[in-house]
Specification:
Elements (H helix, E strand, L loop, with lengths): L2 E3 L19 E8 L10 E7 L3 E7 L3 E10 L1 E4 L5 E4 L1 E5 L16 E4 L2 E3 L6 E7 L7 E5 L19 E12 L5 E10 L5 E7 L2 E3 L2 E5 L7 E7 L2 E3 L1 E3 H8 L7 E6 L13
């Protein structure tokens, strides 16, 4: 399955304390197809790594071999003194709009790959973006609650304020008749939400699930709270339907990791 490239519209820049060994960095070589709309402002690209490492840049439409460098890579130490390694990244970029004042019916792009692991002394990764493969859709925000209390604690109180997500829609339509796509976004306490694609204006929602990517959250595991208990994956389509009834949705629960528990996305490759 190809990967759908998307990101929460209100994604904010976060930085983490990074002490990379020997000043190591990596780079990506980005190939970008033509704009699907003719509107060609710089297109943002965001990388999400361990311990709130967020790297933001932008690329030009219709241009190959755009090199983005100085991406954090290597050993680091958190504010609490816990060592970790920055090498795994998730890749995201926002929808392409039809103009500066026209954000209806946007285009979602494909990224290949939408996640990678840097390896070696001076690592690099090729990333391809194409916004002309999938059919345009309407988008609707689905909010998240970082202040939901579980065992008398909230994620905000534990200083977990953002987490990347993977949204997978099994029936997202391609222009060639194929179905299914997935991609990366971010939930954040200051406005970052998931969004659900619709085929029509607030009608015909796609069938989508969203999964928390807490393998890059150094000190906590993160879950959705649901009627069935704690889970890493929820049905986004069902949640959007529940929001129409005024029910609280996308409640997040954060649980501290053991001191010796380093998640896969924060370990040396």
């Amino acid at each position: 399955m190809k990967h759908l490239l998307w990101v929460s519209i209100a994604c904010m820049l976060l930085t983490a304390p990074v002490c990379a060994e020997h000043g190591q960095t990596g780079l990506i070589n980005v190939n970008v197809g033509d704009s699907p709309t003719g509107y060609t402002p710089p297109q943002p690209v965001t990388l999400f790594g361990c311990n709130n490492t967020v790297f933001k840049s932008s690329v030009s439409w219709g241009t190959k071999n755009q090199v983005v460098g100085d991406i954090p890579y290597g050993h680091a130490i958190s504010d609490s003194g816990k060592p970790y390694f920055i090498s795994q990244y998730y890749v995201a970029s926002p929808p392409a709009y039809r103009g500066p004042d026209n954000k209806q019916y946007p285009f979602i792009g494909l990224v290949t790959p939408d996640r990678f692991i840097f390896k070696g002394e001076r690592p690099a990764q090729i990333v391809d973006l194409d916004y002309r493969i999938l059919r345009p859709t309407y988008l609707k925000d689905v909010p998240v609650d970082f202040n939901f209390k579980y065992n008398n604690k909230t994620c905000n109180e534990q200083k977990v304020t953002a987490i990347p997500i993977n949204t997978e829609c099994k029936n997202f339509p391609w222009n060639i008749g194929a179905l299914g796509a997935s991609g990366i976004g971010q939930l954040s306490h200051d406005g970052g939400r998931a969004f659900l694609p619709f085929l029509g204006d607030n009608v015909d929602p796609l069938q989508c699930n969203v999964t928390l990517l807490d393998d890059v959250v150094l000190a906590h595991e993160v879950y959705f709270y649901s009627a069935e208990g704690l889970t890493k994956t929820i049905n986004l389509t069902a949640l959007e339907g529940a929001s129409k009834k005024g029910e609280n949705i996308m409640n997040l629960v954060c649980m501290p990791r053991a001191a010796d528990d380093t998640p896969a996305g924060c370990a040396a490759p």
